[in-house]
Predict the structure of Amidohydrolase-related domain-containing protein.
Amino acid sequence: MAKQGYKMIDAEMHVMEPVDLWERYIDPAFKDRAPKRLNERRWDIRTVVEGEVMAMIPGGDWPAVSQAEEEAMATRYAEEIARDFDPASQLIAMDKEGLDLAVLYPTSGMYAIAFETMDAALADAICKAYNDWLYDYIQAADPSRLYGAAAVSPHDVNTAVSETRRAVRELGMKAIFLRPNVFNDRPWHDVYYDPLWAICQDLNIPVGFHETTGSRMRASGTDRFKDLGTAHISTHSMEQMLACMDIIMGGVMERFPTLRFAFLEGQCGWLPFWLDRMDDHYKWRTPYGEMSHLKMLPSEYFFRQGFCAVECDEEFVSHVVADLGDDHLVTTTDYPHGDSKYPEAMDRFLELDLKPESRKKILWDNAVRLYDL
């Protein structure tokens, strides 16, 4: 479907789950506790989990997505809403953007287990139900154009490992999806998670970190700002920065040298500064034995195993490419979310000050390597 001569992969397109997904798909033992996406407004991503309504800034006075914004989204996504975001609507959206392929990430699924602590068995059942539904959704749409990122629960590493194995081997998923935030007071470099990293490495799938605002996770900025517009400035980018530092400085990439990580929907402008700051501190502290568990510069680990998403209209990407190169960047429409530029996301990307060879890598080659497509 080449657009302006480029084949295109959306590296983290989203689905809009049906309101009864978990009611239909969850293990019957948990049916009375099944999450539910609300559908009381024309465009509604609010999700109820264990009696908590998300998206809502904890302690805030405003929902994470205002009614005025929902009305605006109802106009932009009118065709998709009319189809109730069915499988065919995903392909219609891709065709509008000129996308050849897309890797699908959740919307309500980003809230469904978004508690710092929760019943691990319930969380696992929620993930299994979502993955089964996503498999059916892809089959009903077009499995030659759509791929899935499986949801797994960090609340129990053993069930996360078993669900990762099942999702990849039985359902054909191409990645796992995780929130970058801290679950159960364990940073991602805690050896508790090593079995999860090991199975992902063995299966040759990446880990895609993706943040959202308005859940019950601790997120950068939500402790001091209680409206979406302000909190959203910090949550996505800063949580990705912390997860990137966690994975690199905590030695996860050292221990799992072929495991790929993607830091998604947090822009890429922070990457040169952050890698440089990690390198600087590595050089400062290593002579004192503090970082002896790392055998390379932090930036070298990222260049070996890391990827970062460019927002479709992120003009600063030209500076990132000039500083770090273009081999570790991917991009996305962020369909069907409030801050998406759909249906003009890819048009905006093609207006960025990038050379044709960089566009080709970001739109296709790098996503192929990330997801082993």
